[in-house]
Amino acid sequence: MARYVPTDDEIELMSAEQLEEFLATGTVSTPIVDAAPQVAHESDSSSSVSGGSPSSGAASHSLSADAAHSPAASRSAGTVESAGSRGEDASSIVTRTADASSRLPGRAGAALDLIDTPAPRWGWMMVVTSLVAIASCWHLIAAEIDQLKNPMGSLSCDINPLVSCGASLNVWQGNLLGVPNAFIGAMAFAALAVLGGLSALGVRLPRVAWWGMLAGCVGGLVFVGWFLGVSVLTFHKLCPYCMIIWSMTIPIATTTWGWAGKLGVIGCSVSGEKLFAARWWAAFALVLIVIAIIGISFAGQWALLLS
Asked: Which of 187, 189, 224, 258 could form a disulfide with 276 if both were Cys (CB 3.0 to 4.6 A apart)?
């Protein structure tokens, strides 16, 4: 049976089986026929039969003639139209394939499927918050270098006995992977800034990029919770630059997950819409939890500092 590459308009009319075939081979072998005109013709035909009109045979003949002379039918019966003969390049075929893949019912999107862009304000928010976090990471790295050069010196982030970063730098908790945590954080935030900037400019990111951002956001929230516990239970001090990084990580994580739910990265459904609607409420709640833990844990120290 003759095979051909469907046009953009025909992709929109494909059935699920035809989409699967197109994604696997880049072509289809069965005619692609718009069902809407046929339904209309059949409705007219059946109404004519129920009314006893002799025109029912003519309507059926007309329907068959329309299907026989449709462009899809004529191509499937005769020639195979290649992508090259239509002047298509590889990039356009890849784009159309990704678009078609996202329309398959009940099918998890492939890693390279292109996802629709969020509102530009989300991208710019990612850029700004990531740059603020990178600046804080840079100050922490500089403070650790200063501490190594002059262990007895005073650091710029040592504000008072409670708010200080010196105790959290040259210890294993501050170098989990053998390098400063701030260095790893700076790289992660740089990647988020680039992806956010691309999204703000209208670039559609592949699904795998969204998966990476979601995984990074989960890791960031886990790290915020872990280091908050370490600050409260081990150091008994608050690192000022760390708190800035925490305050940037929380909205980045909640809004990224919210948009991922809305855009179908994690399954566009009612739950995804609810996740999107709750993104800022979740950020607000997490910030309040952090503030409450800090306030309760250091209640006595705050009283001494303010007295």
From this structure: 258
